[in-house]
Write a structure and sequence with these properties.
Layout lengths: L5 E6 L4 H16 L7 E7 L5 H15 L5 H8 L2 E5 L7 H10 L5 E6 L6 H10 L9 E5 L7 H15 L4 E3 L7 H4 L1 H6 L2 H4 L7 E9 L8 H26 L8 H13 L1 E3 L9 E6 L17 E8 L9 E6 L6 E8 L16 E7 L3 E9 L7 E9 H4 L7 H11 L8 H17 L7 E4 L7 H8 L17
Helix pairs in contact: 1-2, 1-13, 5-6, 6-14, 10-11, 10-14, 11-14
The chain binds 6-O-phosphono-beta-D-glucopyranose.
């Protein structure tokens, strides 16, 4: 582990992400002995409170959120936690912050910007101009997603921050990359001859990537109404998953090798944007969304997207990648389904063969599931399909740590492998900006769906038109959705 004598400063210290994700992740790392002693966390906020009040707030949240909460551990952990009141939009506030930081006497500094992206360049410039980066050790910067609002804003942000920090010190977060089963995609694919040998158009019929959320926008309406599912989920999490699944075997499985191949996938991805025909792209909005706090009562923001896209490469020619994601749905679930082609050779059994499926279950359960055909016992001629299922969370009772724990540790260790490189972010924005440009008026094609349903009917029609359906884990023994 690298030198941890580090000052970890969080801009946006009183936001939900800090309270509910970052601090709990730090607590768990501390509990597991994975934070070394010399680390100090400073949270910045405009609100008038002191460190004691902040620690009390954190205690309350942790007590509710963490089943193994322990007061003695918390006291030791919270000694690392300091609140510093500051309006980060005011240039004159940075000198005071520097003085406060110097009093902590740490050679290394990490700045975590959990703010709206429009502040990324300004904060970075202030850090530089006020000499907060003139330190003995390293200075790293972490940028929460979304990285920009569109291609232009992302480019502007990137130009400023890369000048100031340099690419090797920049960590662009996509927390899905910290999830256990996303990290497992490469292992499942490249460590098993039965998959690596047939990961192509000859054997794969289609690939489905689903990320469903049960909750609506809750209190994030202000942000979400300007983002929508396309920017909030597809531009980053879903395209990252797609890129990992579809990439060519990298020259090396290190950071640069993987990023290079992911970029190629994103650059070769095509999305047809013709909304009217409902054949490739569906936008939905859950009923009642317009009544949510801080949401425009006439909003046409999509809370659901389903799309069909193709990767233009010899490996994937003609293989559709179906993506769907949304809020206010019938359950929270993320999975990747690889549907194989049905084997055309004849068998002694007369029943219709069911396609083999490989499913990587990302959440809530984590695991790998394979569906194969076999002979029905006692029958001479019947075929039946069975599941070979590995559920990590139920079979070996190992629930992976929250993605943020893993990512925070990587940041502390200076490992950028699980963070997105600029070229990936740029290519993903190019795609999404193109879609947005071609669909300026979604209002006519925005399909509403009841909260708690499985999304608009048009998303089912879209895939049905291709003679396929969305695979649903619950029903796999019987059939599909
Ligand atoms: C975030 C989005 O990036 O991911 C949220 O901004 C979404 O809108 C969240 O709810 C989903 O993450 P997870 O880990 O709960 O699936």
């Amino acid at each position: 582990m690298e030198n941890q004598n580090v000052l970890f400063t969080i801009f946006g210290g009183t936001g939900d992400l800090t309270y509910y994700k970052l601090i709990p992740a730090f607590y768990q790392l501390f509990l597991g002995g994975r934070l070394l002693n010399d680390m100090t966390i400073i949270v910045l906020g405009r609100k008038d409170k002191d460190t004691t009040t902040y620690r009390d707030e954190v205690r309350e949240i942790l007590m509710k959120k963490i089943s193994n909460f322990n007061e003695n551990i918390f006291v030791a952990f919270s000694a690392k936690l300091h609140y510093y009141k500051m309006n980060f939009e005011k240039p004159e506030a940075y000198e005071g912050l520097n003085t406060f930081m110097e009093s902590k006497n740490c050679p290394n500094r990490i700045f975590y910007l959990a703010t709206a992206p429009k502040f990324f360049p300004f904060i970075s410039e202030q850090l530089k101009d006020n000499k907060l980066l003139d330190i003995e050790g390293y200075a790293r910067a972490v940028f929460e997603k979304p990285f920009g609002y569109d291609l232009e804003s992302a480019e502007e942000i990137n130009a400023t921050i890369s000048d100031i920090f340099g690419e090797d010190h920049i960590f662009r977060i996509d927390h899905y990359l910290g999830k256990e089963m996303i990290q497992n995609i490469n292992t499942v694919r490249f460590s098993n001859q039965i998959f690596s040998a047939i990961w192509n158009k000859e054997s794969i019929d289609n690939i489905q990537i689903t990320v469903k959320e049960k909750d609506g926008v809750k209190d994030r309406g202000g942000y979400y109404d300007h983002a929508g599912a396309l920017r909030d989920m597809v531009q980053n999490h879903l395209l990252q998953i797609l890129a990992l699944v579809a990439m060519e075997p990298p020259k090396s499985l290190n950071n640069h090798g993987i990023r290079e191949e992911k970029v190629k996938v994103l650059q070769n991805l095509s999305i047809e944007t013709e909304l009217e025909s409902h054949t490739n792209l569906i936008f939905g909005q859950y009923e009642g969304y317009r009544d949510e706090v801080k949401v425009d009562p006439n909003s046409n923001t999509e809370t659901f997207v389903a799309m069909k896209c193709f990767v233009k490469s010899p490996r994937w020619e003609g293989v559709p990648f179906y993506l769907r994601t949304g809020k206010g749905l019938d359950g929270g679930e993320a999975k990747i389904v690889i549907e194989f082609k049905v084997d055309g050779s004849s068998t002694p059994l007369n029943a219709e063969k069911i396609p083999n499926l490989l499913i990587i279950k990302i959440q809530p359960d984590e695991g790998v599931y394979l569906r194969i055909n076999t002979k029905e016992p006692r029958s001479e001629s019947n075929l039946m399909s069975v599941n070979l299922s590995y559920c990590q969370s139920c079979d070996i009772f190992y629930k992976s740590p929250d993605a943020y724990e893993r990512l925070l540790l990587d940041i502390l260790n200076g490992d950028t492998a699980m963070f997105t490189g600029w070229e990936e972010v740029k290519s993903a924005w190019e795609l999404i900006s193109e879609v947005v440009k071609k669909c300026p008026d979604k209002s006519k094609y925005l399909d509403t769906y009841p909260i708690g349903s499985d999304g608009p009917a048009s998303a089912h029609r879209m895939i049905k038109m291709d003679g396929r359906h969305w695979w649903r884990l619950d029903d796999l023994n019987n059939d599909s959705e």
